[in-house]
Request: fold
Amino acid sequence: MNTQFKAAVIQLCTSNDAIMAFAELEEQVRAAAKAGAKLILTPEGSNFLERDPSKFAQICPLETDAQVLNQYQKLAKELGIILIIGSALFRRENAKAANRCLVFNENGELISQYDKIHLFDVNLGAGMELQESKTYAPGQKAVIANTNLGDIGLSICYDVRFPHLYRALAQYGAKIITIPAAFTVPTGRAHWEILLRARAIETGAFILAAAQAGSHKDGRQTYGHSMIISPWGEILTQMDGTEIGFAMAEIDLRLVDEARRKIPAWGLNQGFDGP
Reply:
């Protein structure tokens, strides 16, 4: 296993046009791979974003749609990278949609997938009430992707507020944890960085957080500020709130063991049913 490599987080302003969304994603993934990234993470909702329920139903692909998976598989294989689609949105037959993270290895094989467990049902005031559970069904289990670059714990956006999930991922071997997101501006401004750094510190793991950013075609505003954080809680690289592109940092997995030796706060398994 390679313990030292470059990782990149992609920051996008994904539209409600799936073809355009993939073209923009592909451009940034190719640029990051050319710069030397071996592990690349994209944001939540990487295949499209649409808030209107009727439009969402028309745009959203079925989970059995091979074309969606094939485009990511081909990209990962051609570039020889581990490609983590932070999440893609899918319709299920006769059921609510899935907000699903997809992990492809260097051969383009889909090796892991994770459905978002914690859904964003909140009332932020000023008319900002969001109910993801009306559209999506929650995932039922934590997932770790076993890759040639180490064990990677998977999560999505609102999961970041539930530390027991990250404790379990660390307890079961994750040295890198991904947190793709489409954070709102108010919650992002207040909580994004502090939550990400807390998850890194308490688990002693690298945190890769790829975010949506800017003004989207469906009218939403997302916070951006994609970043990579060390196991000691240091921000290694960070983007701003509107920039489209990628940020990259060197990952040295020996730093995980070092952080956990110094402060073994994540502890041993204490009965939590993890991955």
Notes: The radius of gyration is 17 Å. The first helix runs from residue 18 to 34. The chain is about 25% helix and 30% strand. Residues 268-272 have pLDDT under 50 and may be disordered.
